[in-house]
């Protein structure tokens, strides 16, 4: 059995409305990627299939293929609309 | 300095003192909440922000402007929360020796802030409906 780790996912804008959560902790298999997590969350919440979403891990931009570590903070960043 | 605030932005509240006697130009840009978008009547706006990364990215943009243009100082503040029509959502202020650099740096900062800083805008319409804007992505 693969080792499990716990990460926190934070939601903003449309993703916050869809999940009805600001953040949540989830248990995932070690070395899962944001891509794996998004796929998993999509089965629960029905998330938008948006290729323009960006990724942040521990408050720095990261890639969809990054390997997540225990206690990581993961954010899916919708296209920004400030200003 | 890049800031996020929930308070009303007033130009005279912002630190506007000249950084040195060499300054000959001051440019200020303010983005203001307007009452319409794409044919719909907007009643108010709500901004949400991923604060930790917004401050990091916003500060990086100001640093880039300082490297790219001959300016003495750059400052930006973005408001979050619920905003009424006519209120300032974002303010950029640049000091430089000459107007060209001051204008160009101001333009660079607002353009980059709008496409890179993780802040999102929700329009709340007269009809009671609301919508997160899609952005350029």
Give the end-to-end Cα distance of chain A, rounded to a whole number of Å. Answer: 48 Å
Q: Give the class of chain B from helix and strand content and strand pairing.
A: alpha+beta
Q: Largest interface, per-chain counts?
A: A-B, 20 and 28 residues
Supply the number of helical segments of chain A. Answer: 2
Overall mean pLDDT of chain A: 95
> N-to-C terminal Cα separation of chain B, in Å?
25 Å
* CATH topological fold name of chain B: Aldehyde Oxidoreductase, domain 3
- Helix percent band of chain A: 10-25%
What is the correct CATH architecture of chain B?
Alpha-Beta Complex
CATH uppermost class of chain A: Alpha Beta
Which stretches of chain B are poorly predicted, pLDDT < 50 over at least 5 residues? none
Domain count of chain B: the total is 1
What would you report as the Rg of chain B, rounded to the nearest angstrom? 16 Å
Give the tally of β-strands of chain A.
5
């Amino acid at each position: 059995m693969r080792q499990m780790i716990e990460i926190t996912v934070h939601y903003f804008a449309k993703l916050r409305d869809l999940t009805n959560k600001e953040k949540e902790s989830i248990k995932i298999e070690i070395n899962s990627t944001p891509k794996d997590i998004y796929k998993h969350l999509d089965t629960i919440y029905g998330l938008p299939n948006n290729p323009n979403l960006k990724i942040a891990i521990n408050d720095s931009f990261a890639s969809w293929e990054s390997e997540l570590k225990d206690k990581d903070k993961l954010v899916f960043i919708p296209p920004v609309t400030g200003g | 300095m890049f800031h996020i605030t929930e308070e009303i932005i007033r130009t005279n509240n912002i630190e506007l003192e000249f950084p040195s006697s060499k300054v000959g130009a001051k440019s200020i840009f303010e983005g203001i909440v307007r009452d319409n978008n794409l044919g719909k009547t907007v009643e108010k706006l709500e901004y949400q922000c991923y604060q930790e990364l917004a401050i990091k990215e916003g500060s990086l943009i100001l640093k880039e402007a300082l490297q790219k243009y001959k300016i003495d100082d750059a400052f930006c503040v973005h408001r979050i929360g619920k905003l009424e029509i006519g209120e300032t959502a974002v303010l950029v202020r640049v000091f430089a020796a000459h107007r060209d650099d001051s204008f160009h740096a101001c333009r660079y900062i607002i353009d980059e802030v709008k496409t890179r800083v993780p802040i999102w805008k929700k329009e709340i319409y007269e009809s009671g409906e609301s919508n997160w804007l899609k952005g350029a992505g």
